């Protein structure tokens, strides 16, 4: 039977899918799971923390992986911390050569085995809902050969693109470009392969539940994304935590998703960040903003190790607030 091919074989198209899925869409998956209202105005800080162990200091910045030009220029405090660093650390380095290496494998990472469609892995009700959604959006039915989270990645990327958001404006991409131009060493806290295979630890039922919830909230992406950008600009970690984790408390079926996408990774990334401090390395660290909020955030695990985590006040005119230490809702 001839293998079904969804995407063009052209290298640039595969690299675009890789860029959308790797370290860009995965951190956004849970962010589609909430309906939000505009947040109340409050004084702004940066979405960056100073992490200290004795005399050793590094800076940890939360990133929005898809954004728009309104995030720039970055606050002078953030820019100064980056210029003062000797190396950059990110979740994964999505340099063109690295994307080119993984792009040929994207079919295996995002597609169901040959001969299968979502009708074979979803419940009848779930498959019917996906089919109806694709039809309503005038999208090709051949997308049904994608895995549940692979389909979510494609649909999310299309919706974000249509709204004018792009990985080109992503905070991590911004600093990766600057680091590469300056010849700055780039460290990775995770690997491309790890991020692409996270769904393997989720049961089919959980994957279906996540996909169904995302489809339900797809029309709210514009509201959610604007609220997220606004919270990031204010340095409002409490609001971003609410946006990210509201469904975790109301939909128990989604708990394994949050546990795998956040909790496990947050602890592992915190360990990697702590090692930079142990070695006295002056590193500017950029990770998805959702990893810096909530009860089991990277900050939580760093504080468990006895490290001091202080939110950095903004320097731009009209964007200043006192530094806040351990103000998040941290687990005891």
Q: Can you describe what's shown?
A:
Helix content is about 50%, strand content about 10%. The chain is of the alpha/beta class and about 325 residues long. The chain has one domain. A 7-stranded mixed beta sheet has the order 4-3-5-2-1-6-7, sandwiched between helices. The protein starts with 10 loop residues before the first helix and ends in a 7-residue tail after the last strand. The model is unreliable at about 1-45 and about 320-330 (pLDDT under 50).
In short:
The chain contains 14 helices and seven strands. With 332 residues, the protein is α/β, with parallel strands linked by helices. It has one domain (11-111, 146-325).
Order of helices and strands: HEEHEHHHHHHEHHHHHEHEE
Radius of gyration from the CA trace? 20 Å
Total DSSP helices? 14
Largest sheet: 7 strands, mixed
Portion of residues within helices: 40-55%
Tertiary shape: globular
User: How many separate domains make up the residues?
Assistant: 1
Mean pLDDT: 84
List low-pLDDT spans: 1-43, 318-332
Structural class, from helix and strand content?
A: alpha/beta
Amino- and carboxy-terminal Cα gap: 56 Å
Strand elements, count: 7
Q: What spatial order of strands do you see in the largest sheet? A: 4-3-5-2-1-6-7
Question: How much β-strand is present in the residues?
Answer: 5-15%
Organism: Megalodesulfovibrio gigas (strain ATCC 19364 / DSM 1382 / NCIMB 9332 / VKM B-1759) (Desulfovibrio gigas)
Protein name: Putative GumN family protein
Pfam families: TraB_PrgY_gumN
Q: How would the blueprint of this fold be written?
A:
Layout lengths: L10 H19 L15 E9 L2 E8 L12 H9 L2 E4 L5 H7 L3 H5 L7 H4 L2 H13 L11 H15 L8 H12 L3 E3 L3 H5 L7 H14 L3 H14 L2 H14 L4 H24 L4 E6 L9 H7 L3 E6 L10 E2 L7
Parallel strand pairs: 2-5, 3-4, 3-5
Antiparallel strand pairs: 1-2, 1-6, 6-7
């Amino acid at each position: 039977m001839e293998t079904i091919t969804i995407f063009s074989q052209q290298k640039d198209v595969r690299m675009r899918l890789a860029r959308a899925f790797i370290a860009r869409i995965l951190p956004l998956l849970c962010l589609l799971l909430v309906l939000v209202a505009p947040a109340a105005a409050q004084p702004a800080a940066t979405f960056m923390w100073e992490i200290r162990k004795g005399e050793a200091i590094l800076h940890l910045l939360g990133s929005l992986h898809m954004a728009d030009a309104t995030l720039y220029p970055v606050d002078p405090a953030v820019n100064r911390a980056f210029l003062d660093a000797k190396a950059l650390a990110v979740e994964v380095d999505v340099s063109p050569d690295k994307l080119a290496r993984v792009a040929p494998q994207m079919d295996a990472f995002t597609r169901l085995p040959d001969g299968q469609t979502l009708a074979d892995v979803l419940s009848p009700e779930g498959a019917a809902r996906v089919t109806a959604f694709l039809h309503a959006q005038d999208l090709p039915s051949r997308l049904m050969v994608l895995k549940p989270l692979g389909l979510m990645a494609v649909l999310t990327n299309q919706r974000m693109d249509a709204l004018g958001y792009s990985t080109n404006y992503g905070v991590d991409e911004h600093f990766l470009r600057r680091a590469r131009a300056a010849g700055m060493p780039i460290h990775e806290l995770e690997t491309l392969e790890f991020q692409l295979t996270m769904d393997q630890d989720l049961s089919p039922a959980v994957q279906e539940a996540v996909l169904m919830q995302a489809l339900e909230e797809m029309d709210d992406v514009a509201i959610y994304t604007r609220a997220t950008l606004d919270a990031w600009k204010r340095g409002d970690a409490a609001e971003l935590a609410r946006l990210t984790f509201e469904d975790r408390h109301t939909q128990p079926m989604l708990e394994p998703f949050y546990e795998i996408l956040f909790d496990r990774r947050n602890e592992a990334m915190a360990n990697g960040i702590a090692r930079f401090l142990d070695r006295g390395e002056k590193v500017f660290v950029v990770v998805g903003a959702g990893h810096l909020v909530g009860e089991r955030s990277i900050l939580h695990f760093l504080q468990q190790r006895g490290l001091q985590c202080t939110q950095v006040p903004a320097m731009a005119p009209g964007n200043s607030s006192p530094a806040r230490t351990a103000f998040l809702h941290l687990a005891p």
